Each structure stands twice: as C-alpha cells, then as structure tokens.
Amino acid sequence: MHCAVIGDPAGHSLSPAIHTAGYRAVGLDWDYRAVTVSPSELGGFLTTEISDPDWRGFSVTAPHKEAVLGFGEPDHVARLVGGGNTLIPGPTGPTVHNTDVPGFVRAWRSQVLPRPRTAAIIGAGATVRSLLVALAGLEAVEVLLLARSPEKARAAVDLGTALGIGMTVQPLDQPLPARMDLVANTVPAAATVDHARGWADSADVVFDAIYDPWPTPLGAAASAEQPVLTGLDLLAGQAVDQFLLMTGAELTFDFCRSAAEAELRRRGAVVQQ
Q: Is 65 a catalytic residue?
C-alpha cells in the first residue's frame, strides 16, 4: 500500500520520516513518498491516483490545502477552515480532513499549558484559520490579528467571530496593546525580525509555525523559562490523526515528534527542545 505527501515543493517534508517510522512500529509493509505536484498538475494527479486501490491516503501541504477541498467530501473542520491537509480515498468516494486543528490542540496539551484565553496571531492566511478553530476549542475569548494587510484578514475575522471569539485587527508593525496568553507567528521569519522581541516580551507562551531553520527571531527572543511551541509540534500533533485516518493504527504525539526530530538531526538542522 502507498501513501504520500503532495505539495509544491514536497521534498523538504518530514512527513515521510514520521509515517515510515510509524509503519515499522505497527508492523505495516507500506511505503510513504514525497511527491512534488504543481497546482496545474494537481487535478490530473489526484484524479488518476484516487482511483488506484493501492493508494491509502495523501498528506496535503502548501499550496494545495484549499484546492484539495474540490477532490473529496470535506469534514466539518475542513469546511470551517476552508482547507484540508489529508485526502483519504474510500469506497464511497474520497474524504478531505483537516488534522492541523486537533494537531495544535494536542501540541498545546502536550506541554500541560493553561487554557489560552487571549492570543495574538501574526498573519492572515490558512494557518491562521486553523489556529482560530483550535483556539476556539481551547476556549479562547479574545484574538488580535496582526496583519501586513489588515484588509486581507477579513475571512479570518469572520471565522473567529462565527466561533464566538472577540476579534480585532491591527497592522503588523504596531506593538501589542496588552499581554497575551499566546503569541503565534504564521508569517516568514524575515517579516518578524524587527518585532520579535516585543512580541515575546508580551507573551506567556510563544508559537512559531516555522521549525527549520531554528531558532527563528521569535524563538530566539523567548526567554529560557517561556514555553515555546514550533511547527514541529504542530506537525507531530497533526500526524497522529492523519496516521489513524490512513492506517487505522494509533501513534502517540511523542513518537511522531521524536521521528521528526531524528530526521531533522540527520539533515544537520537545529532542533528546538
């Protein structure tokens, strides 16, 4: 049986390391591949492969998380977010799932952190929407979006409002008006250099969706006592549900994170502890 991560590019993904280690752990003789698929190739690739019974699932990464909704029946979370990261072929048709949302909740709980009542999120894209749904599940009540183009945050604001979260938006270069339980970054590291120290100083917990290269400006600005979550924690958290959807077998968060860490070290990268 085959599974794969598809993206453009896909070769950098740590998902093959996580899933392959999982196959060994549960005794499955499956293979997991990284396949670079451009946006123009996505339709042809999925239409062909979904019909092959040897394919059991696809992890979906950028830039295909929104487009993949057109290739299967989305679950409730994927509909809310407007994007999915898992495509599962099935006898009654393919289904699309978003495991990033429960993945963040799992990563948060892995550090036994208190509920984040307030949060500031830097960015306005698909990752922000996943974080908003996750934060609603963690009972957040107020979220401030910091966006380079605040007008582009409208979809995220509408989603957060529908989830019962109090939403406000301000330009990325303005300082945070109050201390936050969580400050979460979803934009490229270069855009955070001038603001990272202020954000970290205003946060009880820091999350940066980037994990390589590490430390990011925000990660470096966090104090030694400050809880820090990274994209590696999110990757491990979402892989738990993704692996279950594809195989029916269970892995732990710690197992998935350890497999991802091992692959990063093999590549010579620095791993946040």
A: yes
Residue 125 CA to residue 9 CA, distance in Å, equals 19
Catalytic residue among 19, 56, 64, 65: 65
Dihedral (CA of 76, 78, 82, 87) sign: negative
**pTM score above 0.85:** yes
Cβ neighbors of 237 (< 8 A, separation 6 or more) are 102, 103, 104, 105, 106, 107, 110, 253, 256
Structure tokens at 254: 């710690």
Residues 6+ away with beta carbon under 8 Å from 91: none
Cα 180 from chain centroid? 21
- Which pLDDT does position 273 carry in this prediction? 66
Band (pLDDT 50/70/90 cuts) for residue 271 is confident
Residue 191: which residues within 8 A CB-CB, separation 6 or more?
148, 172
In terms of Cβ atoms closer than 10 Å to its own Cβ (0-12, 13-18, 19+), residue 155 is middle
Q: What number is the average pLDDT over the span 132-140? A: 97
With contact defined as beta carbons under 8 Å apart, do 101 and 76 qualify?
Answer: no
Residues ≥6 apart with Cβ < 8 Å to 188: 210
Any residues with CB less than 8 A from the CB of 260 and at least 6 apart, and which?
14, 17, 18, 232, 235, 236, 239
Q: In a 10 Å sphere around its CB, with 0-12 CB exposed, 13-18 middle and 19+ buried, how is residue 233 labelled?
A: buried
Least Cα distance to 253 among 58, 66, 244 occurs for 244
